[in-house]
């Protein structure tokens, strides 16, 4: 504990007291409303502060976890030890002719809306994706036939040693819902998107149509992590789950959505364990019935309750 008190003092020194929260409930920071406590929840305001925090974690041998806006994530009930870094303070979005530069903590939805306001085409697909810009790069987020790799030009990241790097999109190995960002331990600080001049009315019409499709098909009235599973080759995850008669299946407060079988929703104060147990039950049932292995799209982090 003495080590942690020392770490707390150092973190305040690097940022400020208002940017370091102790024993912060992470269910306040996840779309599922799940998750235990973080030892330190840190919200830096500059790139330099991020670098210094990474170097401090290395020096003090403190566990270190990056948390975006918690949209495609399940945090276990035991919470997360050490430092949880959240970049919500880094959220500016700027445009320059046909480029948009968005910081990691900005919402990708807001970035697509900024593109619309400047009549820039290319990010329409992202108008309903709830994640942050950093999270969108992390998993090469996509929807309705578009994905981040279609428009990403470059990014600025901090590596595991705390160095600032500028990388081209090609250096990220962007593929279906994957990138090399997690393997390399990169922390995305900002992204530059290459856009095309378009018609405001045409861009808005596309975004309105996609928003309608999303709102009419997805169970947005309940907390959830979004689409739980990747699309298996040759199949649709939601259809396999539906055909397994799993819609409405419930473990504790977690339920396979009646509106969209690809979603698991928190309908009644679910624990993370119940939510994860339901994911496993769905995987086992679909495998047994159709011989298809469903791979999780959602990331699970943290510790179980002891």
From TrEMBL:
Active site location: 177, 227, 297
EC code(s) of this entry: 1.3.1.98
EC main group: oxidoreductase
Domain of life (superkingdom): Bacteria
Main localisation: cytoplasm
Reactions performed catalytically: UDP-N-acetyl-alpha-D-muramate + NADP(+) = UDP-N-acetyl-3-O-(1-carboxyvinyl)-alpha-D-glucosamine + NADPH + H(+)
This protein's record includes keyword NADP: yes
Cofactor(s) it depends on: FAD
Molecular-function GO terms, alphabetical: FAD binding; UDP-N-acetylmuramate dehydrogenase activity
Cell compartment(s), UniProt: Cytoplasm
Keywords of the record: Cell cycle, Cell division, Cell shape, Cell wall biogenesis/degradation, Cytoplasm, FAD, Flavoprotein, NADP, Oxidoreductase, Peptidoglycan synthesis
GO cellular component: cytosol
Assigned protein family: Belongs to the MurB family.
HAMAP family: MurB (MF_00037)
Role played: Cell wall formation.
Protein name: UDP-N-acetylenolpyruvoylglucosamine reductase
Gene: murB
